[in-house]
Design a protein that fits this description.
two-stranded antiparallel ribbon, single chain, 220 residues, receptor, membrane, mainly alpha, 6 helices, Rhopdopsin 7-helix transmembrane proteins
Amino acid sequence: MNQPNQTVLTEFILMGITDRPELQAAVFGLFLSIYVISVVGNLGMIILTKVDSRLQTPMYFFLRHLAVTDLGYSTTVGPKMLVNFIANQNTIPYNGCATQLAFFILFIISELFILSAMAYDRYMAICHPLLYMVVMSQKGRHKAFSTCGSHLTVVVVLYATLFFMYVQPKSSHSFDTDKIASVFYTLIIPMLNPMIYSLRNKEVKGALHRIWKNLHKLPM
């Protein structure tokens, strides 16, 4: 009995961001810069919230784990994307693609849960001051409200991008638009998150200032 022809899928061809060779170097430099800033920013946030005694609160516990997930899913995608810009053959093995997808889904789902937990923490800090000594005063309550601005910014940027990516009507669906949106939530958002939480947060800026002063006091 004749066996039907079967094609075994061993690898995928990656289309890339652009098919114009003259733009490859510029795009590589841009995304390399974005990835490096993302790694430095998230690693910095992880270390800062771990070593500074004034940042040992529930909010910064969640913020540290948010930085871990941002670092995780940007690293899942970023290095392979950078290699594709300089490689002659833009392919990825089937097993490698499945592994990359599994880790990406793990990190992105973890991020959604962490953002939800952070939102609940802010709700508790504002609406139930008896449970959080830090908001017993008017100053503490103002601090809790101020951190909500950063959190809402992060949530709106992430969910708006995902909504645009997966809920847009078929009539306006475009492969190029999908590529831009996917780059935004895989590389741009992990770069923006530590900036948003640090630039809008006096405690984080104060911790950075203290560490900088301590480094200058070290003997040369």
